[in-house]
Amino acid sequence: MRTQDLEYFIHLTKTQSFTATAEALGISQPAVSLMIKRLEDELDTTLFIRKRGNNILKLTGTGKIFQKQAEKILQLVESTKKEINDKENNSIQLGVPPIIGATLLPLFLPNLIKFSEKIQIIEKGGSKAILNLLRKGEINTALVGFSQPIEEEAYPDITTTLLIKDQFQIWVGENHPLAKKTTVSLKDLREQSFVTLGENYVQHQVFLNWANTHNIDQTNIFSTNEVATAKSFVKANVGATMLIEMATNTNEGLVKLNLENISLPYFYIYLMVRTSSKEDSLQNIVSNEIKEVTRKHFSHKSFH
User: Fold this and answer.
1) Fold classified for 92-303
2) In the chain, domain spans
3) Confidence band (pLDDT; 50, 70, 90) for 87?
4) Are 170 and 257 in contact (CB under 8 A)?
5) What is the pTM of this model?
6) What pLDDT shows up at residue 85?
7) 3-84 has which fold?
8) 231: closest CA among 203, 208, 258, 254?
9) Mean pLDDT over residues 18-31, rounded?
10) Are residues 162 and 188 in contact, defined by beta-carbon separation less than 8 angstroms?
11) Pick from 261, 286, 282, 259: nearest CA to 272
């Protein structure tokens, strides 16, 4: 079975037309038909049927099964090619969510300037999006946040190192009424609006779970995908927010509330490296630099 046949097959599932597929791929229609027949003979099944009255192709039941597996195979082939290329070029694609990136990148990148041509920073959404890129092999290194400790066996192709454990805090603008209180009760919080990050951020689900546990009204919530926007909302007294302490600065006009017997969740930051890349010399240099920086600047939160 050739990968080119799989590519043609997937294209045909999208166009549902031999003619359209042939034109798009720059080959003859008989060549597409021959490819499908070759696959059907090899699999001993029928992959497509024609709907009566038109030439639109529809997948059979076994065709749908093969479509799902073919997509996985092609994705695996592409990620394998990329890993081989990255290893030969000794390059790193480092994925970082905005909050983690804004905090850690300025601390360790200055010491890696001489490798700048071989290090590509990928910032795409929150930790969920970055983890997805890592698992698909589109990047080989990542700094990822989780709402709880992870088990190593959960990611068999990835080496994980816990860097930081930081507790979430509740923040308000410096001119907010709660900012002046010595302690803040659960009743106080239940009367507030809240600002949260979008669904791609770990913080979003962590906050919703926490709010649900403490019976905090979730109807008065403002959501944004931009961390800076969320902070500006809080500073303008649109609402309170839940953020880890390392994600805030003293000059941002935010005040951490001293809560009265109210438990708060933790945020776990991991260095995650695809196993195929961990022995590379540059990978070792970058990983060691990240570990050293977190140990130096966050010694009270560091776990490695």
Assistant:
1) D-Maltodextrin-Binding Protein; domain 2 (3.40.190)
2) 3-84, 92-303
3) low
4) yes
5) 0.70
6) 63
7) Arc Repressor Mutant, subunit A (1.10.10)
8) 254
9) 88
10) no
11) 286
Q: Are 124 and 100 in contact (CB under 8 A)?
A: no
Give the per-residue pLDDT at 52.
65
Supply the pLDDT for residue 250: 67
Residue 64: pLDDT over 90: yes
- Does the pLDDT at position 86 exceed 60? no
b (16+ CB within 10 A) / e for 156-166: eebbbebbbbb
Task: Count the residues in the chain.
Answer: 304
Over the stretch 151-205, which tens digit does the pLDDT of each residue have?
A: 878 888 899 999 999 999 999 999 999 999 999 999 999 999 999 998 888 999 9
